[in-house]
Amino acid sequence: MKVDTFQHLQQIRVKFGPGIFGKIAQKLLALALYEAGFLDIVEREVQGADIDATDAMGKKYTLEVKTTDGESIPISSENIEALKDRTKDGYVPVIAALRIQMFEDWVFANIPLGSLRPGPLPLGRLRAYRIKDVETYVCPAFEVVVNQHFNGVLAGGEHYLGQLLAQKRSEHK
What is the distance of C-alpha 5 from the center of its chain? Predict the structure, then answer.
């Protein structure tokens, strides 16, 4: 990610704290999926996989979204079960991870669910399972969304983003 996007994310994280920042990043990612041309986007604040989205070719993805400034992300048994549950409906299970560091971008990984275990998951392990075509579309769109909505997020946090997502959903019905 570019320097200005990184600085914006840092400011949001400082203002809202790591827990709320993770929820904000998830909503920003959902908006980036719209920006990148994905359809049928469902962003969940509570139980289940975090985001479902369908690409322009009709391929369905279900995402477990994680942010970190470290070398690993936490994976819970609930995360694994939520991804498994969505595969029954034809969704490709994806771990979407963003390390909040300069020049890092989202990594979208389709790790075989049978090899996932609860606990810390090293980011390096995700790289072998990357879905680069999705990253190619979503990462630049994420930068656009973060920079376009930075002031709104600082002022309104999750509520601001929730309103934007509701508006996008109604536009794409």
Answer: 15
